[in-house]
Write a structure and sequence with these properties.
Layout: H1 2-33, H2 37-53, E1 56-57, E2 64-69, H3 72-84, E3 93-98, E4 109-112, H4 120-126, E5 133-136, E6 148-153, E7 156-161, H5 163-168, E8 172-173, H6 175-180
Parallel strand pairs: 2-3, 2-4, 4-5, 5-6
Antiparallel strand pairs: 1-8, 6-7
Helix pairs in contact: 1-2, 2-3
């Protein structure tokens, strides 16, 4: 049983790595061209985060509530991407574009966009100890208490993970996925 589960995780992580590589290769020309580059980047980030969610275990079941603040365009991209794909961990995905002063404790994932970065500390304090996967872009996001930092480096989507913060919030992230994170 454990071997079967480990094999599924290995296959899943391998598929995630292949999808990420394909998405990065597909997006690289768009990033370089400047035409709709930001929206293309959003679509890649959205697909990436939805795949990433399949390797996270939350303590609660039901639909995956993804709250986006500070970036309506990314909210649109993840809504359309979630509608075209199966949600995280086989769960349906519900996306809400919300104000930076909303109640984030009801979310499973929170994406703190650039326009809400000045509220990052308040948002992260509000969800401290709550099983919410906090995702952001800023260089300091992980140091402020975020769990996943998504960024572009060399025209590729990269991610960093603060595993200890995830654990404190009751989230379990696949160790094989953690091994793919940038250092």
């Amino acid at each position: 049983m454990v071997r079967e589960s480990s094999a599924r995780i290995r296959v899943g992580v391998t598929l995630l790595a292949i999808v990420c590589a394909a998405l990065a290769a597909e997006a690289a020309p768009a990033f370089a061209s400047g035409n709709n580059a930001r929206m293309d980047e959003y679509r890649v980030r959205a697909a990436f985060l939805l795949k990433f969610a399949k390797f996270v275990q939350w303590p609660r079941d039901g639909s995956l509530t993804f709250c986006v603040t500070g970036d309506e365009e990314f909210g649109f991209a993840i809504t359309t991407t979630a509608g075209a794909a199966n949600g995280g961990n086989g769960r349906d995905v519900v996306v809400h574009n919300v104000s930076p002063k909303s109640d984030f404790s009801k979310c499973d994932m929170v994406y703190v966009g650039r326009d809400a970065s000045k509220y990052t500390a308040d948002i992260l304090k509000q969800i401290e100890g709550v099983p919410v996967l906090a995702v952001g872009e800023s260089d300091a996001f992980l140091n402020e208490g975020g769990i996943v930092r998504v960024f572009v480096e060399d025209n590729k989507i990269r991610f960093q993970v603060n595993g200890s913060t995830a654990e404190k919030r009751g989230l379990k992230i696949s160790s094989q996925l953690l091994s793919l994170a940038a250092r």
